[in-house]
Structure to design on (330 residues):
């Protein structure tokens, strides 16, 4: 029945390719099993568990996962034929050094001295993130869907040359014609699947950015208050300077210099602290490394801008002080 569904979907105009798997991508699912690799003696502490999807033919072509060596599965890889597998690059490099060296090697599901390798590696494909886009690729052993002892349900993928929305209704109708009891449920594009997988991280990112912006605003208001008070306390001094011939620009630079010193001290303290704390949050980072220079540079630039804005109004007020009124203020 499953292969009939694939044939029906492939026949729909606008569908370039279709394939299925028991272990869908970027869905949080994980199917693992222990394997024995011929010629490799695994220490007791070595992790020999790998991702083990059962997939149909044309799976890698449908998902644009590059074939690095050997071949993909075909419809001839069925129950009763020679057991075969396709491994990913991480698996091939770990045990054989290169994709080409992995072709023709034997592996077997299970562990222990009684397990005899009976599955031939016929292909190597590029690594792909599986559970979430944040996870690093791990060793994976793909096996033909038709070589399962008891084939079950699968997740269907279709590669279209048209907009997916225009093909979705045709897929539902074709499956309904094939068997009225079959329901094409939860259809979505890979972009939508990635968005769904990242929804929690995006929410946390928005919250973190919001709290950061609030903290930045509160810091700017605090700096402004402190500087405004300090400037008001120096009204007489500023009046004396201006009475002796100081220009307004010099007064502005006097106030800004003090804030620049404050900013420099803040940056000097914050940079090492942020670099150290970022290493504790490495697991929460995506697309950026701890101590990323561009990120740190952006933070320094934001700090300088915040200080400049906080100092602008007090500096302007100081420059507009009337020397005579300042001298009479005390």
């Amino acid at each position: 029945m499953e292969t009939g569904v694939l044939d029906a979907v492939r026949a729909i105009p606008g569908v370039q390719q279709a394939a299925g798997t028991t272990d869908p991508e970027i869905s949080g699912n994980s199917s693992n099993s222990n394997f024995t690799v011929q010629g490799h003696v695994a220490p007791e502490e070595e992790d020999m568990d790998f991702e083990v999807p059962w997939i149909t033919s044309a799976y890698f072509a449908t998902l644009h996962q590059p074939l690095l060596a050997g071949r993909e599965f075909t419809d001839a890889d069925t129950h009763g034929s020679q057991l075969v597998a396709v491994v990913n690059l991480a698996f091939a490099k770990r045990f054989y050094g290169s994709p080409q060296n992995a072709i023709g090697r034997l592996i077997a599901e299970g562990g222990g001295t009684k397990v005899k390798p009976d599955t031939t590696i016929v292909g190597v494909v590029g690594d792909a993130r599986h559970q979430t886009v944040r996870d690093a690729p791990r060793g994976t052993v793909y096996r033909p869907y038709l070589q399962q002892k008891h084939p079950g349900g699968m997740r269907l993928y279709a590669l279209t040359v048209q907009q997916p929305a225009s093909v979705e209704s045709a897929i539902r109708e074709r499956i309904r014609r094939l068997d009225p009891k079959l329901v094409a449920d939860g259809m979505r594009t890979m972009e939508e699947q990635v968005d769904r997988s990242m929804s929690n991280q995006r929410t946390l990112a928005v919250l973190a950015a919001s709290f950061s912006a609030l903290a930045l605003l509160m810091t700017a208001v605090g700096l402004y208050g402190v500087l405004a008070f300090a400037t008001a306390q120096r009204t007489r001094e500023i009046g004396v300077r201006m009475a002796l011939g100081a220009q307004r620009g010099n007064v502005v630079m006097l106030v800004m210099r003090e804030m620049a010193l404050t900013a420099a001290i803040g940056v000097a303290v914050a940079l090492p602290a942020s670099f150290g704390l970022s290493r504790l949050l490495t697991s929460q980072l995506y697309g950026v490394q701890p101590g990323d220079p561009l990120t740190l540079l952006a933070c320094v630039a934001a700090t300088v801008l915040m200080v400049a804005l906080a100092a602008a109004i007090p500096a302007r007020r100081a420059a507009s002080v009337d020397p005579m009124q300042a001298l009479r203020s005390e």
Notes: The radius of gyration is 32 Å. The longest helix spans residues 199-233.
